[in-house]
Specification:
23% helix, 5 strands, alpha+beta
Length: 113
C-alpha cells in the first residue's frame, strides 16, 4: 500500500477539490560534509539530495502538525553554508508553501426529502 502524496513541488498541483488554508514557510538544512573546492559539484549534489529529502520530511511533519492534507511548494531559496574551522559545507533552504485541506465529506443522503 502506498502512502498518499502530501508534498507537491512547484508545477505539480494538489487535488483540484483541495481548499487553501494559508501560506507558510519551512526551513531545513542538509547534513554537513567535509568539503574542498576541488569537489564542489559533487558536494553540491550530495547536499542538495539530502536537503530535499529533509525538506520533504519537514513539510510532511508541518502538514500533519497544522492539521492539513497537502503542501504545495511555491518558492525556495537555497544557499551554501561553510564552517572553515571544521572544513564542512552544507546547504540551507527556506521554502514557502501553501497548506491545503481536503474538503469536508459531503453527506450523500438528502435529509430534506
Amino acid at each position: 500500500m502506498t502512502a498518499a502524496k502530501v508534498v507537491y513541488w512547484h508545477r505539480e498541483l494538489p487535488p483540484l477539490d483541495a481548499e487553501i488554508d494559508g501560506e507558510h514557510v519551512v526551513e531545513a538544512a542538509s547534513s554537513r560534509v567535509p568539503g574542498t573546492i576541488e569537489h564542489r559539484d559533487e558536494l553540491w549534489n550530495v547536499c542538495f539530495a539530502d536537503l530535499m529529502a529533509r525538506t520533504k520530511a519537514r513539510l510532511e511533519q508541518e502538514v500533519a502538525r497544522l492539521g492539513g492534507d497537502y503542501a504545495h511548494v511555491l518558492g525556495e531559496a537555497i544557499d551554501t553554508r561553510r564552517d572553515d574551522v571544521k572544513g564542512e559545507t552544507w546547504l540551507r533552504g527556506r521554502f514557502s508553501y501553501v497548506l491545503y485541506r481536503r474538503p469536508p465529506a459531503r453527506d450523500t443522503l438528502d435529509k430534506t426529502a
